[in-house]
Design goal:
The protein has a six-stranded mixed β-sheet with strand order 4-3-2-1-15-16. Strands 5-6-9-12-14-13 form a six-stranded mixed β-sheet, covered by helices on one side. It is an alpha/beta fold and 225 residues long. The longest helix has 14 residues, at 111-124. It has a single domain, classed as Purple Acid Phosphatase, chain A, domain 2. It has helices spanning 14-18, 45-51, 68-73, 111-124, 155-158, and strands spanning 2-7, 28-31, 56-58, 78-79, 84-87, 90-95, 98-99, 108-109, 130-135, 145-147, 150-151, 166-168, 177-181, 184-188, 196-202, 210-215. It is built from five helices and 16 strands. Helices cover 16% and strands 29% of the residues.
Length: 225
């Protein structure tokens, strides 16, 4: 059995995230981007990654300066933007940044660029027992509404969801939830700066993963011996 904590949209609020690891002891940590906020210094990124008590895989978000890729390479975390990594029966692939927004944030892709990136990532992803995509931007049609029937997700990402079992995304802070797209599970735990995270449990004896959305304000479960 494998337990994963998935967090996204930290926006520099590292102290809030530390509380998650007073509650959880995962095998892996996934970070779905916006580690920092617009214009924020990157100085705190390496100490933050060093303090996470599990192997950590991260993609940048649209609010991260593109220089964060160099910083992440120098940290204890493993940046997986445009990469795919096998961990036994688990394969993790990553797409950082976002499709275009009205705000001209630092790490955005044109539709053509994102199409090329998604094709590249899909080609690198082999079929494993569990295949997870960590993407900052949600696929179009899943957890991407900014107003009723107004979707801002990425079309190129939607085209490759069938290559994965779980799509871990963020970006749209108000779209905390779990849904299905093309019979694949999409999860946005909500912004980590508010103490939100998802606990994903993979059991090879089970057909479906167990995904629970949590917050650091939730009562701590006590296991009776």
């Amino acid at each position: 059995m494998t337990e994963i904590v998935f967090i996204t949209d930290i926006h520099g609020k590292f102290d809030t995230v530390y509380e998650i690891f007073n509650r959880e002891n995962p095998d892996y940590v996934f970070i779905g981007g916006d580690v920092t906020d617009l214009g924020q210094t990157l100085d705190g990124v390496i100490p933050f990654m060093e303090d996470i008590p599990a192997p950590t895989f991260v993609v940048p978000g649209n609010c991260d300066n593109r220089n964060i890729l160099t910083v992440l390479e120098a940290s204890d975390a493993i940046p997986i933007h445009r990469k795919s990594i096998d961990l036994g029966k688990l394969t993790i692939s990553g797409i950082g940044g976002s499709n275009a927004t009205p705000f001209s944030t630092p790490f955005e892709h044109t539709e053509e660029e994102l199409t090329a990136i998604t094709k590249e990532v899909a080609a690198k992803t082999g079929k494993n027992r569990w295949n997870i995509l960590i993407t900052h931007a949600p696929p179009f049609g899943a957890l991407d509404e900014v107003a009723p029937d107004v979707h801002v997700g990425a079309f190129p990402i939607a085209k490759i969801v069938k290559d994965f079992d779980i799509i871990c995304c963020g970006h749209i802070h108000e779209q905390k939830g779990i849904c299905e797209l093309e019979k694949r599970i999409c999860v946005n735990p909500g912004p980590a700066y508010d103490g939100n995270y998802a606990l994903i449990t993979l059991d090879d004896d089970e057909d479906e993963p167990k995904i629970v959305l949590k917050n650091i304000s939730d009562p701590i479960e006590v296991t009776k011996e």
